[in-house]
What we know:
Layout: E1 20-32, E2 36-43, E3 46-53, H1 59-64, E4 70-79, E5 94-105, H2 122-127, H3 129-132, H4 136-158, E6 162-163, E7 181-183, E8 191-193, H5 199-207, E9 212-221, E10 232-242, H6 246-264, E11 269-270, E12 277-279, H7 280-287, E13 301-302, H8 304-307, H9 313-320, E14 324-330, H10 338-350, E15 357-362, E16 365-367, H11 376-386, E17 393-399, H12 401-419, E18 426-427, E19 429-433, E20 438-440, E21 447-449, H13 460-466, E22 476-481, E23 484-491, H14 496-505, H15 510-524, E24 531-534, H16 538-545, H17 576-581, E25 585-587, E26 601-603
Parallel strand pairs: 3-5, 6-9, 11-18, 12-19
Antiparallel strand pairs: 1-2, 1-4, 2-3, 4-5, 7-8, 9-10, 10-24, 13-14, 14-17, 15-16, 15-17, 19-22, 20-21, 22-23, 23-24, 25-26
Helix pairs in contact: 4-6, 7-12, 13-14, 14-15
Amino acid sequence: MHPYRTHTCGDLRPLHVGQQVRLSGWVHRKRDHGNLLFIDLRDHYGLTQCVINVDSPDFPKAESVRNESVITLTGTVVQRTPDTINDKMPTGHIEIQIENVLLQSQAEMLPLQVNSNAEFPEETRLTYRFLDLRREKLHGNIVLRSAIISSIRRLMIEQGFMEFQTPILTSSSPEGARDFLVPSRLNPGHFYALPQAPQMFKQLLMVAGFDRYFQIAPCFRDEDARADRSPGEFYQLDLEMSFVTQEDVFTATEPVLYGVFQEFAAGRIVTPPPFPRIPFEESMLKYGSDKPDLRNPLIISDVTNVFQGSGFSVFQKAIDDGAIVRAIPAPQAAAQPRSFFDKLNDWARDLGAPGLGYITFSEGGAKGPIAKFLDDERVAQLKSVANVGEGDAVFFVCDKPTGAAKLAGLARTKIAQDLNIVEKDAFRFCWIVDYPMYEKDEESGKIDFSHNPFSMPQGGLEALMTQDPLTIKAYQYDIVCNGVELCSGAIRNHLPDVMFKAFEIVGYPQSEVEERFGGLLSAFRFGAPPHGGCAPGIDRIVMLLADEPNLREVIAFPMNQQAQDLLMKAPSPIPPERLKELYIEVKLPPKKPDTVEKKVTQTG
């Protein structure tokens, strides 16, 4: 007999009754019934109930073992009596009559309970992550993650993609976030950067003639944590294709995402290909966001014309100063109590807005604080543009375009949630397309890239030479699912002249572009195919399919909100002799009385 196990804790069934078996695992739970001691033994595969009689010589050993200790049990499989069968457990029709107990590893007192769904502080969970990972839900999420990645890999290979690995130690690139820097001992004063994405390498693979590339790529960005963004590192399905249009990328990507979501949706609806294509400007108008949740049926509309010259001085003055008015419908909300409208008004004020104006429509006509300023013709126009009718209400946001879009988008989400009209048990996908190539910083007035700097502008070099930069669109696109951005991508700029001009517009001279991206430019000068790709986020895909609100729940060893690994104690100070080898001197910032965490700045 094997020294540790003949079966796993999820194997045994009634067909094994009478067999002598050996199981190893963790003590999940103990129940003392006087003359009998029940032990639920757990491993990766499941749970098996085991029982030992008080007369057994190993009873004291079994009685003294703590939860989460590792033990090996030898015994005979017996059928449970009808009144003790547990149909909720795969092994619930049998139990093990224990004959021998061998303690492999005694557990100390537990800082968190593994056999409980009780909530524990984040600090405790991350400090003892190995215990947290034993808990059923989190353990299942990590297993699900593995299965999802295996499915994605299979689907990519079926689409004709080949898997390659790209370097981790590389040079800095303008991806929009801070790099993690790694000092070079052999090249004093020089630093590697951990890749924010394998952007240039995957383009180089296309220039090298590999045609279809993918990898499950680790990416590193020194940015703040959010519920849908893990600090430090994340993983993405990185892919690139040669001789393709934007539609070709969509056609290759959609079966992969649809396939993996369909496989793990557990009965939930998944948008079938082709996914809807929504231009950026349309998305900002209709949904107030470039990450629209299409489970929400509400559509925002522009009703600036309705209020232009209406006599409602609050809106009129703002419109004269460049503001716009957005309308958010609220189906069948006219019958809601006054408190419904007051709470939404207070919610908007909490966000720093003046409030949410509204009108309701019932048999008595248009009612509400703003209704008296609109004549019958304007009311009819409003109902037509906002697509509202009897029994409905409509809310208004008045602000400059950027602020109006943001608040209207948030109000759209809030109103749909309060009315409970968001579709349930569905994954609704769409592509957001036609992103602007450039944007203007409202404070500095500086023109910058709005998305990926390596994208091909629509219209190519001629557009860069002749158009106002803020009117140029790019072959850039995102995949959004349920309001979560899963993916960014683009058709790439593969022509040096176009690349120089694109960067010149944001203030990079040709010499600096050559210095920073010399390897890529060199490749482009030796025959580069038109190419493009995208990179769906693995962590966010798993988060959606696991129905978790936070990425921490689908990553085995995440950092906390301060980008600290509490288990491995990273980041940590480095001994002076090591820093000396790297020609680095540490200069700490002045201490702040209320600052608990120290921020270390390294200069080389």
